[in-house]
Amino acid sequence: HIGVAYSKAQEGLPPLGQEIAFATGDVEGAVDRALRAGASIVREIETKPWGQQVAVVASPDNTLIVICTPM
């Protein structure tokens, strides 16, 4: 329906050159739920110098998902 060609995200292929981000007050809980739903960890939870917690997971089709606290 978008009228242009696109690449489909697929398991076993490198991630697409994009990511989606979700902000939450409970990064640890959100990462845990993502892993239980089939995601894999790309970057463990880390606290940035400005205090924000950030983690990155990959969905089963290898879409990169950033889970972070609000800024």
Rounded to an integer, what's the Rg over CA atoms?
14 Å
Strand content: 25-35%
Number of separate helices: 1
Instruction: Indicate the mean pLDDT.
Output: 91
Biggest sheet details = 4 strands, mixed
The count of DSSP E runs of length 2 or more, i.e. the number of strands, is 4
Distance between the termini: 34 Å
Q: Outline, from the CA principal axes?
A: globular
User: What helical percentage do the residues reach?
Assistant: 10-25%
Give the helix/strand class. alpha+beta
The strand line-up of the biggest sheet is 1-4-3-2
Would you write up a description of this structure?
It is a single chain. With 71 residues, the chain is α+β, with helices and mostly antiparallel strands. It has one helix and four strands; from the N terminus they run βαβββ. The chain has one helix at 27-36; strands at residues 19-23, 40-47, 53-58, 64-68. Strands 1-4-3-2 form a four-stranded mixed beta sheet, with helices on one face.
